[in-house]
């Protein structure tokens, strides 16, 4: 599947052709069969010391970056999930991106008086919000293992409008993804930060789309070309996803189209 220059990408998806182009490409996405090397589920199904929690993890490559992401698909919120925080602790992850099926941020992130909570031997403490706006929040949190008497700092980012994505929100979402990349880069310089944890609750396909957008953004910046179809097929295979919806395919294309004006001016694309 060939890549497109920025001009080709825009011209083929003008107002008259957008629906037909995206439908045609999307039909190829779901006709493409998963190969023998498709990603296998790294499923964790464990009874922790607090209830039962099942989740799956999927490693996903970025653009020219091996295992840039790990998508965590939870059976419930992470607040009471012993296994989620145990997973974060054991793997030493430093950046978490939280995606929710609603536009409301998690109560714990909003409630200034509830600065900490305990899950098993882990004490999760919220520090100051370094960035907080209508579209996203960035927090520094610490996770302390009471048994080991050790603690680590984690950057926690959440985007607030993924279910009610406004037409004017493309630039904000791209800025958010650049911020995610910046945090990963900063942590990588300090220590081995590992992949970006993309934590989805009730919106697994949107988590896949966010990884695809991140890949497309990096490809645009590095090569001034892009292939949404290739990026979707690659991620779809790595997470063993049999079906990818037309709605999500349109979402990816709309975000890229809506952000190109800003990107072209800022990055000289």
From TrEMBL:
SUPFAM superfamilies annotated for this entry? (Phosphotyrosine protein) phosphatases II (SSF52799)
Q: Start and end of every Tyrosine-protein phosphatase domain?
A: 1-259
One MF annotation (Gene Ontology) recorded for this entry: protein tyrosine phosphatase activity
Question: Which regions span the lipid bilayer?
Answer: none
Positions in coiled-coil regions: none
Q: Which PROSITE patterns match?
A: TYR_PHOSPHATASE_PTP
The record's section on InterPro entries has:
Prot-tyrosine_phosphatase-like, Protein-Tyr_Phosphatase, PTP_cat, Tyr_Pase_cat
Similarity section:
Belongs to the protein-tyrosine phosphatase family.
What protein is this chain from?
A: PTPO protein
Tell me what organism the protein belongs to.
Answer: Bracoviriform congregatae
Gene (name only) = PTPO
């Amino acid at each position: 599947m060939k890549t497109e220059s920025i001009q080709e990408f825009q011209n083929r998806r003008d107002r008259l052709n957008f629906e037909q182009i995206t439908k045609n490409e999307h039909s190829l996405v779901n006709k493409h069969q998963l190969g023998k090397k498709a990603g296998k589920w790294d499923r964790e199904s464990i009874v922790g010391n607090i209830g039962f929690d099942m989740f799956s993890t999927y490693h996903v490559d970025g653009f020219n970056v091996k295992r840039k992401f790990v998508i965590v698909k939870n059976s419930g919120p992470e607040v009471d999930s012993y296994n989620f925080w145990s997973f974060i602790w054991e793997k030493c992850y430093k950046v978490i991106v939280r995606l929710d099926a609603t536009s409301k941020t998690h109560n714990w992130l909003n409630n200034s008086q509830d600065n900490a909570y305990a899950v098993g031997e882990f004490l999760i403490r919220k520090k100051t919000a370094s960035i907080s706006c209508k579209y996203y929040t960035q927090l520094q949190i610490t996770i302390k293992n009471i048994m080991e008497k050790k603690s680590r700092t984690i950057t926690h980012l959440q985007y607030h409008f993924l279910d009610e994505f406004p037409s004017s929100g493309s630039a904000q979402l791209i800025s958010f993804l650049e911020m995610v990349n910046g945090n990963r880069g900063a942590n990588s310089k300090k220590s081995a930060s590992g992949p970006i944890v993309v934590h989805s609750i009730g919106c697994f396909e949107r988590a896949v789309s966010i990884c695809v957008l991140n890949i497309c953004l990096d490809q645009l910046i590095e090569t001034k070309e892009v292939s949404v179809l290739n990026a979707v097929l690659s991620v779809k295979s790595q997470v063993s996803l049999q079906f990818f919806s037309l709605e999500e395919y349109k979402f990816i294309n709309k975000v890229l189209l809506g952000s190109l004006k800003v990107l072209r001016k800022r990055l000289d694309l």
